[in-house]
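Hypothesis: this fold can be encoded by more than one sequence.
Test: take the structure tokens below, design a sequence, compare later.
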């Protein structure tokens, strides 16, 4: 059996240092024919929330230390999580202070009931409470960890941090902090998982911090060192992954204490994404200036103090972010308002205090969406899958005078200018928020005004990328309202009919700008006021637009490589997308060690203490596979591979990049390409990497991937 170690293209360019020795090149190997129709998994847009749900917080009444609402009512916590997942269409939840049995199984059932047909899976890593005995981690994969403190009171299971994903987890690892126990400081962990078909890893953590409350037995310097050690551990873990999303409770409002995390990744709430948003929003509400009666009832308080101590990071950057402050408890707990919120209330009343209407925790959920691959990506080359592709799952239908021209620029969509179009089943972007659309296009000489890409509104399209015949220009336009009046903001650049041109239109809602790029270079920018933003909810269309409620301006010419992103691409991304070979990046296809035990082959920089980072191939002659794309659909492209022995660097390198046997077969435009590996040594660990080339230029080299050869 052959195991495919798959890679997928990304817009982020990465160059890495080769690990292992360069030895004598091996003899030539026979390459596997390229698969022009092959599709590889894409970078998923991770829509994640992180939330300290305080599912096992201390305190029975509001004046008790560690009080949090609904401590003994797990159903209320689950209600809040499920509500936000449904409202924001989240595919990842990261939770802190959660109980494995009381929370995870019911939460999984609730999420799947709310979204029939969905498949949610969860992992939990145990946390050790101060005063409890630490339990060393077991080697291997244990998706629901039992090494940690047991939940208290009516709650059951292991206390920990958890990750839930809308998909199938194929691997997890956890790295415990080394902070000492018995100092009113939890021993936490960094939990990371991967998901079938995703390039992104997902990690969460809960960092302990003394703050100004340093125990008498410690100096402030030592307490600070304990905190810094935890951050260093987190940075080392996430630094192993080429693409990662990290969220958690970091227990500090001092963002400089979180370095080097800010140097490794973007933090979602450092900026705004649409006009009117706030940045650096608070995530924690704490009662301040409390005075109590002899029974612990709150007589008065100064208010709630707020802070930002929960964070969401990602290597890929974000398209949006928000802290849901309405989910944080901000109730008035004075006994004059809540007479039962006092220690004199019988202990049989398990919830004597009434929180605010949506006050599920003392923390707010923080959620964000990462920059993923294109939501829609159609080759439009006439081959298999010509009108499918992208993370949104959109498929297009040819209508009217639309046909395939296999000899045109490597294969293209031919449009007749009167009825030809390709239509998706729904909208690919939100035209009221930032987005990018792009395509190769060639207007026929003498063609009339015609639209390359658009998205229908009710009366008029919400956006159009088009050729204007009157003055021979390309235009990217956003109408100011869904009305019959032609009132649009548009960026305009010269056009040459009969010439293949790469067109990209970018709307940046936060900046209020509409920009047009021609062949990777910004040519024009216009403004689009906040008051003129609106969402066109009709289908995404290639080859026409909609005006006055009717289909309009059919394109006369050829179109290829239509794409839509739900965020504004940067200038350097557009330049690379239009004219450079980009490096494949390491995929994380699950490999299996023991029967039924899934492990990742890695793409990590090193192995963790329990050996969970390297998966085991099922063959001593695996096949290395990469997805390659040329910015020019008419050009041939292939891949060159390297593989080396990490266990014994003195061994000859089986495949050396640029040498005989390293090159795959060729595909035109894009596809999947592979090389088989010569016989490997049983039980040895191997690293590999790949680059794309067209014979004239080469891409940067991919991130290193790792796996272990099976034992004979």
């Amino acid at each position: 059996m052959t195991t495919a170690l798959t890679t997928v293209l990304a817009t982020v360019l990465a160059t890495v240092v080769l690990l292992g020795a360069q030895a004598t090149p091996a003899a030539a190997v026979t390459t596997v024919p390229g698969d022009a129709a092959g599709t590889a998994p894409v970078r998923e847009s991770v829509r994640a929330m992180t939330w300290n749900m305080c599912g096992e917080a201390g305190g029975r009444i509001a004046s008790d230390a560690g009080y949090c609402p609904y401590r003994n009512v797990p159903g209320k916590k689950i209600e809040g999580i499920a509500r936000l997942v449904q409202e924001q269409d989240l595919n990842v939840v990261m939770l802190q202070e959660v109980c494995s049995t009381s929370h995870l199984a019911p939460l999984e059932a609730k999420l799947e009931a709310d979204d029939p047909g969905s498949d949610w899976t969860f992992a939990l890593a145990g946390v050790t409470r101060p005063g409890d005995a630490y339990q060393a981690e077991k080697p291997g994969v244990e998706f629901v960890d039992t090494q940690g403190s047991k939940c208290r009171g009516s709650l059951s299971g292991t206390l920990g941090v958890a990750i839930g994903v809308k998909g199938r987890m194929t691997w997890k690892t956890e790295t415990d902090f080394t902070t000492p126990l018995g100092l009113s400081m939890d021993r936490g962990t960094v939990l990371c998982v991967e998901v079938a078909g995703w390039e992104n890893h997902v990690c969460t953590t809960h960092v302990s911090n003394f703050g100004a409350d340093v125990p008498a037995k410690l100096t402030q310097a030592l307490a600070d060192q304990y905190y810094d050690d935890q951050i260093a551990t987190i940075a080392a873990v996430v630094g192993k992954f080429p693409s990662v999303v990290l969220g958690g409770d970091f227990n500090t409002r001092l963002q400089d204490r979180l370095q080097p995390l800010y140097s490794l990744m973007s933090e979602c709430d450092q900026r705004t994404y649409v006009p009117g948003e706030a940045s650096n929003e608070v995530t924690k509400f704490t009662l301040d200036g409390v005075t109590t009666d002899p029974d612990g009832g709150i007589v008065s308080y100064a208010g709630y103090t707020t802070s930002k101590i929960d964070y969401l990071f990602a290597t890929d950057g974000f398209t949006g972010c928000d802290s849901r402050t309405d989910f944080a408890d901000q109730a008035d707990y004075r006994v004059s308002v809540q007479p039962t919120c006092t220690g004199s209330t019988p202990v049989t009343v398990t919830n004597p205090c009434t929180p605010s209407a949506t006050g599920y925790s003392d923390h707010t959920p923080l959620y964000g969406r990462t920059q993923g691959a294109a939501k829609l990506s159609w080759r439009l080359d006439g081959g298999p899958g010509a009108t499918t592709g992208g993370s949104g799952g959109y498929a297009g239908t040819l209508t009217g005078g639309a046909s395939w021209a296999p000899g045109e620029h490597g294969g293209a969509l031919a449009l007749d200018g009167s009825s030809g179009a390709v239509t998706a089943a729904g909208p690919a972007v939100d035209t009221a928020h930032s987005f990018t659309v792009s395509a190769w296009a060639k207007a026929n000489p003498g063609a009339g005004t015609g639209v390359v890409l658009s998205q229908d509104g009710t009366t008029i399209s919400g956006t159009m990328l088009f050729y204007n015949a009157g003055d021979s220009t390309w235009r990217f336009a956003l109408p100011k309202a869904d009305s019959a009046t032609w009132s649009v903001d548009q960026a305009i650049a010269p056009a040459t009919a009969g010439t293949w041109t790469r067109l990209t239109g970018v709307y940046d809602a936060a900046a209020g700008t509409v920009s047009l790029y021609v062949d990777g270079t910004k040519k024009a920018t216009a403004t689009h006021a906040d008051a003129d933003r609106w969402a066109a909810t009709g289908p995404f269309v290639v080859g026409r637009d909609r005006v006055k409620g009717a289909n309009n301006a059919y394109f006369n010419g050829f179109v290829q490589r239509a794409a839509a992103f739900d965020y504004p691409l940067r200038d350097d991304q557009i330049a690379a997308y239009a004219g450079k070979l980009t490096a494949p990046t390491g995929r994380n296809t699950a490999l299996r060690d023991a029967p039924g035990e899934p492990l990742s082959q890695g793409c990590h920089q090193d192995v963790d203490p329990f050996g969970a980072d390297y998966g085991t191939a099922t063959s001593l002659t695996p096949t290395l596979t990469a997805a390659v794309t040329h910015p020019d659909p008419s050009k041939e492209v292939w891949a060159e591979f390297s593989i080396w022995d990490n266990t014994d660097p003195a061994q000859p390198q089986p495949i050396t990049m640029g040498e005989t046997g390293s090159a795959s077969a060729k595909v035109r435009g894009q596809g999947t390409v592979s090389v088989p590996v010569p016989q490997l040594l049983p039980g040895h660990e191997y690293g590999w990497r790949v680059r794309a080339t067209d014979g004239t230029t080469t891409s940067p080299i991919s991130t290193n991937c790792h796996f272990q050869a099976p034992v004979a």
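Residues 365 and 700 are 38 Å apart (CA to CA). The first helix runs from residue 74 to 88.
Hypothesis status: open.
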